[in-house]
Amino acid sequence: MSSNEHIVIVGGGIIGCATAYYLSQMGWTNITLIERHEIAGSSSGKAGGFLGRNWSDHRLSGPLSRKSFELHKNLAHTLPHEVDYRTLQTYAVRYSSETKSRKQSSKIPWIKKGYDSIKLLGSESSTAQVHPRKLTKALIDVAMRSGNVSLLLKTVSGIQLDGVTVKGVICGEEIISADKVVFSMGPWSNKLGIWLKEAKYLSGLGGGHRCHSIVLDTKDCNISNIAIFGELETKEYEFYPRPDETIYVCGEDDNEPIPDDPKNVSIDMQKIDTLKKITQEMITSLSESEPQSAQACYIPSSPDSEPIIGPLEEYNGIYVAMGFTVWGILNGPGAGLSLAEMITEKELTIPEVQKLSFQRFKNMV
């Protein structure tokens, strides 16, 4: 394959931007990334950025997660941008209305008294964090500065084919020609089932569920680099202190239908108020000020809760990455590297990623 062949990437989240980054690092010179909204405008800009090295060891994606955890550390040292990467300790903390404990935790002194239990989930060798938006934008910035990658802000509405060979993508009345196309559209990957009818197993794949989050100022709270997976009554919440003296808090999922346009993702303010209340009840010295940001995004899904990565065998030149669930940020660099190696026909750094292909869904139709 010639390094001058035109590669089009559809989707400006972490996987699309990581694919562009690694392709440009490999010397590919004709890459176009198409994004309808903005870089990191959806889940990749609104996620928490928690990284777990061995948290997927029991899954098909375990080898991908381990390598991607390593790649995050490497990127933090090599990218010429601050991406707020750091290692963490991670704890599970359980509260209930029936708790009798009034002890203060010596492990996490900044949480309030009254917990039922505290359990270590990860050490600084196995858990870390990154700022997803900063990382995603850093990847595409470096790729574009290389001169190998261009960015188009357009809406892709279809795929141009010659038989089963890709020739480009359709953007309204315009066709962007391509020799190979990568689709990394997160929850909006469900559009592929409409565009590519020969791959019948694509019908029903894609989609996701909505999750709310807030970011609060913690500069007066003396909060350390400890991530918390909190259980309060029957609900679960996640708390990620960040190096910029803020804390990211998420939870309050629901099944609100996915809008056609990422710009139209709605926020349930009642759920935002719940997140504020829970955080103020749990963390000492936290002011009652309004969040710096309140947001919602859709977490991509797949039938077996495993990511889907690789070429579509029914077509020539089409590659897809979708269904990364809550581990999209963790697995983004590994997925981008793997796609770049598949496209350029290089030996795979993570050979086990081949088990994450569409092959496992073909008996569904």
From TrEMBL:
InterPro entries: FAD-dep_OxRdtase, FAD/NAD-bd_sf. One of its GO terms (cellular component) is cytoplasm. Residues 7-342 form the FAD dependent oxidoreductase domain. The chain crosses the membrane at residues 6-23. Keywords: Membrane, Transmembrane, Transmembrane helix. Pfam families: DAO (PF01266). PANTHER family: OXIDOREDUCTASE TDA3-RELATED (PTHR13847:SF150), SARCOSINE DEHYDROGENASE-RELATED (PTHR13847). This is FAD dependent oxidoreductase domain-containing protein.
